[in-house]
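Page 37, continued from 36.
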């Protein structure tokens, strides 16, 4: 029995009631959970302040003071405990609003206490609310001197009612380590520990909770971060290895007339070097007899669809069918139009299948698909319906994978006896660290260069009081025959947020750009699908010059004539969203512009976001800054991944460590794919056990 799977009820000092509230409030159920509830910061408890030196700008202070008096004052809702304390330089007032009865009983007038908390001032009097207090004694002072850094743990108001504030959790953790530190077994091979000069696992756990000094704390953090990233990559790369062993793939042995004819006679532009590189990688993948699983990252407009089409033509040349699955009808239709325009009529049969496809058209489509006459099918999740049967599906392209569930994607695999090759595409630039973690079991390709002839979008930041200049610029662009998007963050006015809203925006635009000279389309999420499509089509056809919209246009609208994107309240949008919106323009040969409107009140992060947008068009650079600002758990689509539940490592700041861990795992699997060598038995055991305790990490 792994001791770390013991329920917290059995920990000395916890008991039934405390164990229940720890589980409910923090999700801590057993010894392992408590030991992996790490401090979020540390406080130097060796320094003492005199009362006269306290000022409200200090974060936390520690004072030696004698209790002079205590008194419960106020009635019901205003009831509070006020304790007066004093040292040789002045008086410090302590106040409690909760847990009054219990605290009042424990405080003894005339006794000297070590008082610790956040200082404030009330009526010119130094004050502390809800401080930590400990009776002064030489032994206490000696302990304070030995433990320079005191851990601070996350707690809640409910936990504090059970005396489980940071100090209470610290005591339970200390008891647990005292009992079971010897049971924390090693889970990394000795040669890795020696190579990276890591401290032992037991030492790391002791020093992350109770560091003897700052150096040991750093060593503990380094060890636990490396371990976390290493085990994550071990799991991902082992899954990839198992996948290649388990799933054989169709061999695309030839490049035939479909590919060659398209490449030499129909392709209207020269492929960029990154596009050629990705095609070569896909070509190599599909010749190995193993199912391909590749992620293709590329900014909006970088030419991913052309690469997908040419890969599908290789599949067709080898007697297979291919399909593209997109998350929305707008995006599926756009892919269909792009592919159809590239191949032209009569070259190869391409069809579109969405929820809107009429029943009689579906019937014909199903027949052609089953006979093999239909070579390329593009659609939404309608593709995965059971009645959609391919004769011989060999190549699948999934666009914006994070919008589909695992089950949806696997249904496409099951459309053939030998699973088709899979190319996952995303226009959301993912930082390298995040890609290695989220998609660590896929091979990754990147298109980081725009096609020739595309001019970089010029991004400008204007404040609200410069709006007349923006109106003048808009009129000038419209006079040149261009079209303009204006995006708002909200549909209706919010009482909580002082935002420019869509309805106000339409009123202002109608005044500044009146009929009949100017026409405006309006699109937002609450419109019926038919009305939305009608408004979109008016804009696409050039019947309206301005589209006022919410972020429903973020993905999937391609209007080459639209050259200006104006984003209202740009400070309210995330970086990746701003970048996606900017990608709606710049699709033609003309110079395009993105104008970011904001108030003068900008937060620190808001200013960084807008400055970043003005400075660079590089989606990968933007995604790295976004990761640093927001953290990995908040980036699009990553919350559901499960692999990002990192306790100590941080993908934004621990990139170098992640690359080292990944490289080490690759070297291990290259030498010992079955983890059979004696020195790797500790890793092999980690995969065999179902035990998630601290003795071993559950990583499979």
């Amino acid at each position: 029995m792994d001791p770390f799977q013991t329920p917290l009820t059995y920990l000395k000092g916890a008991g039934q009631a405390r164990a229940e509230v720890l589980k409910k409030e923090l999700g801590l159920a057993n010894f392992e959970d408590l030991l992996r509830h790490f401090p979020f910061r540390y406080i130097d408890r060796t320094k003492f302040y005199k009362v006269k030196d306290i000022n409200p700008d200090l974060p936390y202070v520690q004072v030696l003071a004698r209790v002079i008096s205590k008194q419960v004052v106020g009635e019901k809702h205003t009831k509070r405990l006020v304790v007066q304390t004093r040292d040789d330089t002045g008086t410090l007032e302590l106040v409690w609003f909760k847990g009054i009865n219990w605290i009042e009983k424990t405080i003894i007038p005339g006794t000297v206490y070590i008082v610790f908390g956040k200082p404030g001032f009330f009526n010119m009097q130094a004050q502390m609310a809800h401080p930590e207090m400990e009776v002064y004694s030489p032994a206490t002072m000696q302990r304070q001197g030995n433990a320079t850094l005191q851990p601070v743990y996350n707690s809640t108001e409910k936990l504090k009612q059970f005396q489980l504030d940071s100090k209470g959790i610290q005591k339970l953790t200390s008891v647990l380590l005292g009992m079971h530190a010897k049971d924390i077994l090693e889970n990394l091979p000795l040669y890795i520990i020696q190579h990276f000069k890591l401290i032992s696992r037991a030492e790391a756990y002791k020093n992350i909770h109770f560091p003897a000094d700052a150096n040991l704390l750093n060593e503990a953090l380094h060890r636990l971060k490396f371990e976390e990233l290493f085990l994550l990559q071990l799991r991902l790369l082992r899954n990839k290895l198992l996948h290649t062993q388990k799933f054989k793939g169709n061999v695309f042995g030839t490049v035939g007339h479909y590919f060659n004819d398209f490449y030499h006679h129909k392709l209207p532009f020269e492929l960029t070097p990154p596009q050629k590189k990705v095609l070569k990688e896909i070509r190599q993948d599909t010749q190995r007899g193993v199912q391909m699983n590749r992620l293709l990252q590329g900014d909006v407009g970088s030419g991913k669809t052309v690469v997908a089409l040419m890969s599908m033509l290789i599949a067709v040349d080898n007697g297979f069918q291919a399909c593209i699955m997109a998350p929305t009808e707008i995006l599926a239709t756009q892919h269909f139009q792009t592919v159809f325009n590239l191949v032209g009529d009569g070259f190869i049969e391409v069809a579109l299948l969405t929820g809107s496809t009429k029943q009689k058209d579906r019937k014909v489509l199903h027949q052609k698909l089953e006979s093999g006459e239909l070579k390329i099918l593009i659609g939404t999740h309608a593709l995965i319906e059971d009645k959609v049967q391919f004769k011989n599906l060999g190549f699948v392209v999934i666009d914006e994978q994070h919008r589909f569930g695992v089950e949806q994607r696997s249904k496409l695999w099951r459309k053939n006896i030998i699973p088709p090759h899979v190319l996952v595409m995303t226009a959301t630039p993912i930082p390298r660290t995040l890609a290695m973690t989220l998609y660590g079991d896929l091979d990754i390709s990147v298109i980081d260069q725009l096609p020739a002839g595309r001019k970089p979008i010029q991004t400008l930041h204007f404040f609200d009081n410069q709006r007349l200049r923006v109106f003048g610029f808009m009129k000038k662009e419209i006079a040149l025959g261009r079209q303009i998007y204006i995006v708002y963050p909200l549909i209706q006015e919010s009482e909580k947020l002082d935002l420019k809203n869509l309805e106000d925006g339409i009123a202002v635009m109608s005044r500044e750009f009146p009929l009949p000279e100017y026409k405006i389309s309006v699109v937002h999420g609450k419109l019926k699908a038919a009305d939305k499509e009608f408004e979109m089509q008016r804009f696409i056809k050039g019947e309206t010059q301005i589209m006022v919209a919410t972020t429903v246009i973020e993905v999937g609208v391609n209007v080459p004539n639209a050259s200006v994107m104006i984003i209202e309240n740009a400070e309210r949008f995330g970086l990746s969203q701003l970048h996606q919106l900017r990608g709606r323009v710049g699709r033609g040969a003309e110079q395009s512009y993105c104008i970011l409107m904001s108030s003068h009140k900008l937060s620190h992060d808001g200013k960084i976001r807008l400055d970043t947008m003005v400075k660079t068009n590089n989606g990968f650079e933007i995604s790295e800054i976004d990761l640093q600002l927001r953290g990995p758990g908040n980036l699009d689509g990553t919350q559901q991944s499960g692999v990002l539940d990192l306790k100590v490592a941080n993908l934004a700041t621990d990139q170098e460590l992640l690359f080292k861990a990944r490289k080490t795992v690759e070297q291990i699997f290259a030498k010992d794919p079955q983890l059979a060598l004696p020195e790797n038995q500790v890793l092999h055991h980690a995969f065999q056990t179902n035990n998630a305790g601290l003795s071993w990490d559950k990583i499979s």
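The CA atoms of residues 537 and 543 lie 9 Å apart. Flag for discussion at group meeting. The chain has 24 helices and 22 strands.
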